[in-house]
């Protein structure tokens, strides 16, 4: 530092304002194609007598290992039923407080299914994305998987999901959600995963449904800074320019 130059309080303030006004805009990407279950947590709900298995399958992927959801329902069920399960990858963690308010989430995965005895499906049957924040699970309304030919992988891609696209799961046994409650993507931390469900109006029929998931991917894009942030940035730049000019006059 020049012996006749001192740090300008205005310059320090300008620098602080610039740091506050220019949040990081880096995109975050999460990918899994091996599905080590040590990285996952989750839960399931099935009617009495039914089962739901969530497991890593080393050979059924597209290609290689895959995540498998296997639902089995006995012929003794009296009538219509609903079953579901979700898994959350604990390494797919985003903290908006440190990484910046989140704008959109784009999910993609390869899904393949086989089934037996399934001749009628309810509207809630399928695959979509899940988000966990604290103790709450939220289900995405976009990117739902539809029935395709058995044994054929289908790529399911969500649109740019925002907080409003996620609804709070209020009852795992029924799949009920509260569309008025959404996660906090602006300042909270959360993890991402997958939600699967099956329903049928067929009575007294043994049913199995085997979903295979591979190449799970999420791309998270930070929110565009609010107009107030851009105003703060402009003010910081102006203050920085004034401070610099004053310092140059001192040197002269």
Task: Compose a concise summary of this entry.
The protein is an alpha+beta fold and 252 residues long. The chain has helices spanning 9-21, 96-99, 227-251; strands at 28-32, 40-45, 51-57, 66-73, 81-95, 102-116, 126-133, 136-140, 154-157, 166-171, 176-178, 189-200, 207-222.
Textual characterization of the structure:
Helix content is 17%, strand content 44%. It has 252 residues and is α+β, with helices and mostly antiparallel strands. The chain has a 7-stranded antiparallel beta sheet with strand order 2-5-12-7-8-10-11. Strands 1, 3, 4, 6, 9 and 13 form a 6-stranded antiparallel beta sheet that branches. The chain has a single domain, classed as Jelly Rolls, CATH 2.60.120.260.
What are the SSEs and their pairings?
Elements: H1 9-21, E1 28-32, E2 40-45, E3 51-57, E4 66-73, E5 81-95, H2 96-99, E6 102-116, E7 126-133, E8 136-140, E9 154-157, E10 166-171, E11 176-178, E12 189-200, E13 207-222, H3 227-251
Antiparallel strand pairs: 1-13, 2-5, 3-4, 4-13, 5-12, 6-9, 6-13, 7-8, 7-12, 8-10, 10-11
Whole-number total of structural domains: 1
- How would you state the average pLDDT, rounded? 81
* Largest sheet strand order: 2-5-12-7-8-10-11
Please give the largest β-sheet: 7 strands, antiparallel
* H/E element sequence: HEEEEEHEEEEEEEEH
Key descriptive features of the protein:
six-stranded antiparallel sheet; alpha+beta; globular; 252 residues; Jelly Rolls; seven-stranded antiparallel sheet; single chain
């Amino acid at each position: 530092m020049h012996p006749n130059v001192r740090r300008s309080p205005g310059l320090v303030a300008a620098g602080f304002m610039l740091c506050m006004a220019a949040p990081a805009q880096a995109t975050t990407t999460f990918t899994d194609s091996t599905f080590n279950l040590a990285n996952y947590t989750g839960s399931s709900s099935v009617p009495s007598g039914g089962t739901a298995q969530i497991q890593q399958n080393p050979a059924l992927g597209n290609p290689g290992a895959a995540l498998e959801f296997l639902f089995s329902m006995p012929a003794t069920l009296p009538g219509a039923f609903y079953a579901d399960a979700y898994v959350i990858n604990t390494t797919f963690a985003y903290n908006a407080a440190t990484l910046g308010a989140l704008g959109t989430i784009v999910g993609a995965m390869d899904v393949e299914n086989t089934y037996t005895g399934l001749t009628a499906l309810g509207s809630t049957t399928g695959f979509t994305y899940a988000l966990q924040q604290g103790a709450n699970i939220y289900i995405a309304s976009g990117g739902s998987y539809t029935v395709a030919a058995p044994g054929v992988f289908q790529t399911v891609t969500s649109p740019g999901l925002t907080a409003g696209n996620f609804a709070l799961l209020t009852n795992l046994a029924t799949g009920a959600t509260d569309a008025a409650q959404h996660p906090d993507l602006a300042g909270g931390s959360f993890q991402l995963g997958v939600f699967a469900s099956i329903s049928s109006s067929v009575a007294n029929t043994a049913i199995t449904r085997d979903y295979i998931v591979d190449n799970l991917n999420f791309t998270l894009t930070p929110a565009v800074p609010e107009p107030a942030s851009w105003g703060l940035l402009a003010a910081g730049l102006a203050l920085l320019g004034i401070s610099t000019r004053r310092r140059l006059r001192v040197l002269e």
